[in-house]
Specification:
By secondary structure, the protein is of the alpha+beta class. The protein has helices at residues 2-13, 45-57, 105-114, 130-136, 197-210, 233-239, 268-286, and strands at residues 18-23, 35-42, 62-65, 71-73, 78-85, 90-93, 96-100, 117-118, 139-140, 143-144, 149-156, 159-164, 184-191, 193-194, 219-222, 246-247, 250-252, 259-262, 295-297. It has 7 helices and 19 strands. The strands form 6 sheets. It has a 5-stranded antiparallel beta sheet with strand order 6-7-13-11-12, with helices on one face.
């Protein structure tokens, strides 16, 4: 059956884009995780449409990733097809910019800067793709990606739809996509304001300075969501004496306790044990149940 599936995938996507028993650790910023039964790099929306339709028909499970910057992959890997979006077009139309889901945010900001369009300077340093950032409603420094999104192109049940931002239930690190896993983000339309290039560059520089306390080791970004505005998770973890705590190759960052980092050779199990420890201690002292910010793939 596995060989039949491989032939099926190669027929749709091309043999050079299909990989069997593929290590997923290298596809995430955490550098953690086992192998996918198949990994497919999809280079166009047309191929994606055909692939998703085919996988649904044969009832083969799949998971779509961008840059893997908000993802913790199981040590056992994924017994299905992992799809990486490779299409990455950017189009400007006045103060509106369209970017495919596979575009890294830094490319969007660089493109906007070159056209003297401001509004996403705060995303500097965030390693997400447009698709991943939209899915998670990525945010930092009091901003979130949904502030700039006008509408999103989505693949829903083999149909292409453009949905307005107001209908996507954006909230703090939330979107409608998290409850509709079969909806695939294809791209997003952003609205920018006209701004001098020098002003944009100055703002980006200021935001870079604010991220100087973030760890440089592999991680999936902030581990937990803020339960409420006045609850600073990293500060609370630090006060509990857990900063620097290690289990296996995973560590609660010494630089910023809001991050769990891969010190080298960390497993998903190591990270999950640290997550469990933090949750237990925070609930015991503060009565707060912390929610994970990143996605799990297992």
């Amino acid at each position: 059956m596995k060989q039949i599936l491989k032939s099926y995938l190669e027929h749709i996507c091309g043999a050079e884009h299909v990989f069997e028993d593929f290590p997923l650790a290298g596809q995430t910023t955490f550098k953690i995780g086992g192998k996918a039964k198949f990994f497919v790099a999809v280079q166009s929306k047309e191929i994606l449409f055909k692939l998703i339709s085919a996988l649904k028909y044969i009832e083969e499970k799949y998971f779509v990733i961008g840059n893997g910057s908000n993802l913790l992959v199981s040590d056992k890997g994924y017994d299905g097809v992992v799809i990486k979006l490779g299409f990455a077009e950017i189009i400007e139309n006045g103060q509106f910019v369209y970017a495919d889901a596979g575009v890294i945010l830094s490319r969007v900001t660089a493109f906007a800067r070159s056209h003297e369009l401001g509004g996403l300077e705060w995303t500097v340093g965030i390693p997400a793709t447009v698709g991943g950032a939209t899915y998670m409603n990525a945010g930092a420094h009091g901003h979130q990606i949904s502030d700039s999104i006008v509408c999103v192109d989505v693949l829903i049940d083999d149909e292409f739809k453009t949905i307005e931002s107001t209908q996507l239930k954006f909230d703090y690190r939330k979107s409608i996509f998290q409850k509709n896993k079969n909806w695939i983000i294809l791209g997003a339309y952003f609205y920018f304001k006209k701004e001098k290039k020098q002003t944009i560059e100055r703002k980006e520089s200021e935001y870079k300075k604010k991220r100087i306390n973030h760890p440089i080791e592999p991680s999936a970004g902030s581990t937990f969501k803020k339960p409420h505005e006045e609850f600073y998770v990293g500060k609370v973890i630090d006060e509990l004496g857990l900063k620097g705590k290690e289990i296996g190759g995973a560590q609660i960052s010494k630089k910023h306790a809001g991050f769990i980092v891969n010190k080298g050779g960390a497993t998903c199990h190591d990270v999950e044990k640290l997550i469990s420890l933090v949750r237990k201690e925070v609930y015991k002292i503060h009565g707060v149940k912390l929610k994970l910010e990143y996605e799990k793939l297992k």
